[in-house]
Each structure stands twice: as C-alpha cells, then as structure tokens.
Amino acid sequence: MEVKILSAKFDIKDANKIAIAKTLGAYATLDKLFAMKPEDVIEEVKKSGLRGRGGAGFPAGVKWGFLPKNTGKPIYLTVNSDESEPATFKDRYILVRDPHMLIEGIIICSYAIGCHDTYIYIRGEYTTQVKVLQAAIDEAYAEGYLGDSVAGHDFQLNVTVHRGAGAYVCGEETALLESIEGKKGQPRSKPPFPAVAGLYGCPTIINNVQTIASLPFILTNGADAYKVYGTEKSPGTHLFGISGHVEKPGMYELPLGLPILEVIDKVAGGVWKGRKLKGIIPGGSSTPVLLPDEVKDVTLDYESMAAHKTMFGSGGIVVLDETVDIVQLVKNLIDFYHHESCGQCTPCREGLGWMLKIIKKILRREGSMDDVLLLRELCDNIEMKTVCVLSAACTMPVRSYLDKFRHEFEAYVQGASSAQVKQE
Amino acid sequence: MSDRSQLISTGKPFQYDRERDAEFERLVKRYPTRESMILPSLWLIQEQEGWISQEAIAYVADRIGTFASMVYEAVTFYTMYQLHPMGRNHLCVCRTLSCWLRGKQEIIDYLKNEIGITPGQISEDGRFSLEEVECLGHCGTAPVVQVNGEFHEDMNVDKLKALLATLK
Fold first, then answer.
1. For residues A55 and A370, what is the distance between their CA atoms, to the nearest angstrom?
2. Does residue B1 carry a pLDDT above 50?
3. Is the predicted pLDDT of residue B87 greater than 80, yes or no?
4. Nearest to B97 among A117, A242, A333 (CB)
5. B38 pLDDT above the threshold of 70
6. Chain A residues 77-106 with CB within 8 Å of chain B
7. Where in chain B do CATH 3.40.30.10 domains reside?
8. Cα dist. A322→A271, A273, A400 in Å?
9. Which of A7, A58, B92, B156 could bridge to A253 as Cys pair (CB 3.0-4.6 Å)?
C-alpha cells in the first residue's frame, strides 16, 4: 500500500547531505523551472490539485492566486514547520531526511509567486532537526542554490530559519507571522488574509512543509503524474502518522483514498496486543473521534472524512484500544488546549479553564449529570467565538467524545452519587 | 501553568560571546525590522547561559533597540525560554495524547520515585531538572523523553535507567 514519492530518499543514508541528494536528483528541476513563466508554474500546481497539508486542505495553487498584483511591496513565503498538533509527526522526516527536497520546493514556490525572502518557522522543540535543516541550507548557499543568483539564474532568494519557542498556537498562520515579527503568538483577526496583508504588512503565502516538499515531484513529472495517486478531489500522497495502540506505529507515505481500517490492519499491524478497537482519531487530536462501526466505509481523504462529520486534518491517526478511559483522555486533551491558549480571547482563555475544572471534578467522582451537560453546552458556547480556531480544536473533539461515549461520563457521575450515598 | 512573570537578576552585566555576537550580526541582516530579532536573540542567550536573566533581557532590548517590555512580553509568553537556572540535565517528558496512551506516566512515576523530582523541580545536587511538556512531535515512537534537546524514543523504565546512568 505504501508509495515512495516524498519519502523516496528517506531510507538512504546521508540523503540530507547535498552531495548525496544531488546524485538522487535534488535540484534537477531548476533548469526546467527557470525556463517556465511563473504563472505557468502556478497553473501546473493548480492542475495537480495539491492541497495544503497543514490541516485545512486548501488547494495550494489557488492560495497562491490570491496574491494581489503589483502592490510595490515585497512578497514573502513562510514555511510552516511548527508541527505541534498532537499526533502529528510527519514534517520532521522531511526536515531531517530530505531537507534539500524542501529547499528545492521553496525555490519553486518562491519563483512562482515572486518572493525573494522565505522564512521557515520551525517549532523550538525541534532542536536536533533545526541543526540538520540549517546545515542543508548552508550547503545550498555554498553551492549557489540560494543567494544572489539561484543556480546561476537571474533570481535572488534568501531562506532564513526562525525558531519558535514552545507555543502550539504559532502553528496558526497569523500567530506564526506575529512570532516572526518578534511578538507573542496571538492570532490576528481576518480579513485581511495574509495573502493581502501578512508578514510586515506585505502579501504573504504560508504553506506547510509537506505541501512545499511536494512541488519538486509535481514540477519534474507533471501534474498528471501526481494525480495518478489518490482520488479525484484528494489527489497525491500523504505522510500519515499512525500512533497510539497499534503494533507498528510510525510514519507511512500512502496515496489518499485508502480505507482507514485496511491501513490500520495491513500497514500499522492492527490494534496491539490482540485487543479490540475502541475508536479512531483520524487527523490529529483536534479531529472528532470515530467509533468502530462508523469507520467501515471511511477512506483517508478529505471528502470521506467530511462525510463522516470529522476531518482529514494533519493525517495523524490515533488508534484507541478497548482499555482507554475516555474521560481521562478528554482531560488530557482539554489540559493541552487550555495550556496552549494564547490568552487573547475570553471564551478560550477562561472557557477551556472552566472545562478543565469540570472534567477534573468528574474524574474525582464529585460531578453530576449537570456537569456533563454543562461541559457539552460549553463546547457550543466557546466554539467559533474566538479570533482563531484553537478553541474549536478543543471543543470539536470533546463534543464528539461526550456524544459518542456518553455512557462513560455517566458512569463517573453515577459512581459519584453512589459514593455520596455511602458517606451518608 | 507555572508563574512566568518573575525574572531573576544575576547582579552582573550580560553580553554575547564572540560566536553569538557573530550569529546576531548574521541574522539581523535577514529581517526588515529589528524586532524580529527578539526570538532569535533570546535563543542565543539561552544557548550561551542555559537560561535568561533580567540583565540578559535588558542587553538584547538595548542591542535590538526596542522596548524592554517587548522582550519581556516574548520571554514570558514562550514557555521554552527558561527564566531560572536548570539542572545540568534537563529532562522533558511528553505528556500529551500518544505518549499518554503508551505509558508516559510510568516514566514520570519512575523519576518521581527513584530520582525524587516532580515536574517543575530541580534535583538537590543540580544534576537533573524535570518538565512535563506538551506534544513533542514524536508520537510514532511514543513515549518520548527529550534530554538537553536530544530525543530518546520508544522509552520505557529500563531504557530510562540506562540513559540516566550516562548523565553526569
């Protein structure tokens, strides 16, 4: 089931070094690139149907098309390498095992949109990864693939790595821009969207690492070769991260559109220890959970996920076995999002804290059914009432657990009432 | 969340060493505004000293030419900036979803019972400090422990024991 498009060089020793990477085809598309008109490059990417791999799945070529023309301001590209959504661990493979594929993708995108300064925003925790990435960028400068004249062509490009410092919210694209500008990571109101007024108030494109790293393949082989993989509306391949209770967790490159259960069984070795499946989180911790009898027809693409009222997200699949205490899991999730709230909007800053207090009360077996209902009501009252979607990233999954595993919450509060009776 | 509002004074002036000075000058040319140097400057302090003091904050504000309040705002917002000295070996244990599902609590319990430190503490001999952190992006090889920036994957108590023995 696995394919090797993005991950073609991942298992080759020292493929992060430019000498080895070049023997494997790195930077080979650049002559073709500079012979094309920038608008033709955008057209080819549009044709490929490549969708943003950060989570939202917006078509990349279409996003680039939003840039206003001739504003007299510089255009910036920022590559989102914040990768902080729990259960997401795909981009770091690119950063470490094939950074030159990312740099080549940056050159392609920058040429297409007319950008001369790219910033790669990498999460602060990726300490070893940032060293490998920076070394690759230094090599690319030394060999003339970056700098005043990219690969000998009349095109200037600087690439700068900007390290975050432990804030999940900086994966939100406008918080990321604030962070590059030296401020705390608090998302901006939109509109204006970054394509119009982004970094330093200039037109800015923000793309995920995997999106950018997909470009060399598309340009080399053409949009049609990319569309061989995946489905009509979700073309191409994706680096899926499978974690949790499976025998063989890990990162696997797969075409989009495969049945999720088959992937878990055949690729990830099935539910571990011979246990039964309890649920699947399909695309990172913020996506609503799916029950075993809901997943039979679910395929790994944007459309199937939407049809089943969940999201493709980042492709970070988490498998839950029968032993998982859902109430504990929900506490773990709320704890995360509450900790990562930037504090800007009251419903998120205070609301998630309130939700955390309630779930802790339920876990102490001091809660009542009213608390469970209040938790559910809070989800509706917090969601979409904030500048960014961080709060929704918490309430969407929590609502799904409350609705689909209500009996587990009830057991905790019923335990509470019987304990109280005993005391009396 | 821990209190990140208090800064510690060393009583001594701060400045970058030669290597960090050169890195500052390389990076400052890459940004159209000097404020963009706030995060990189703070990282340079932490690389050099292991933590960020009141004097160091004043130094970078001055060097960048921005308000000290801008630097204070950033240093207190971003949780990876350490506002006090850490243990010689700083252990970060991931507490989030996939690591939680695959036994991060055993790691925390071992450190608590055997080393005698709980998250947020520094051991008395200064050898270890411990922090429970949010998702480290290594969910496929959970649970994960980061020691002085290095990732240790697929951890269990035995592997942790062996690892700790190598740390002075």
1. 34
2. no
3. yes
4. A333
5. yes
6. 83-89, 92
7. 89-165
8. 10, 11, 17
9. A7
Q: What is the pTM of this model?
A: 0.96
- The pair of structure tokens assigned to A203 is 């037109």
Q: Residues A87-146: pLDDT tens digits?
A: 999 999 999 999 999 999 999 999 999 999 999 999 999 999 999 999 999 999 999 999
Q: Which residue has the tokens 């330093």?
A: A200
A127–B149: do the CB atoms touch at under 8 Å? yes
Q: Give the mean pLDDT of B45-50.
A: 97
Has residue A417 got a pLDDT over 70? no
Per-residue pLDDT reduced to its tens digit, A197-215: 999 999 999 999 999 999 9
Indicate whether A311 and A339 sit together in one domain: no
With contacts defined as CB-CB under 8 Å, which chain B residues touch A313? none
Residue of A nearest to B95 (CA): A332
CATH number for A252:
3.10.20.600
pLDDT of residue B161: 95
Name the fold adopted by B89-165: Glutaredoxin (3.40.30)
Do A105 and A212 belong to one domain?
A: yes
Closest CA to A87 of B105, B131, B106, B136: B136
d(CA A280, CA A265): 13
Compute CA distances A280 → A56, A87, A142, A359, whole Å. Answer: 19, 12, 46, 21
Is B135's CB within 8 Å of A158's CB? no
Q: Establish if A44 belongs to a structural domain.
A: yes
Question: Looking at the complex, does the CB of residue A127 fall below 8 Å from at least one CB of chain B?
Answer: yes
Chain A CB within 8 Å of residue B93 CB: no
**Per-window interface: A 303-362 vs B, CB < 8 A:** 316, 318, 320, 324, 329, 332-333, 335-336, 339-340, 342
Domain count, chain A: 3
Quick one: how many helices (H) and strands (E) in chain B? 7, 4
The pLDDT value given to residue B114: 86
Report the pLDDT averaged over residues B126-142: 96
Cα(B3)–Cα(B139) distance, rounded to whole angstroms? 28
Architecture of domain B18-77: Orthogonal Bundle (1.10)
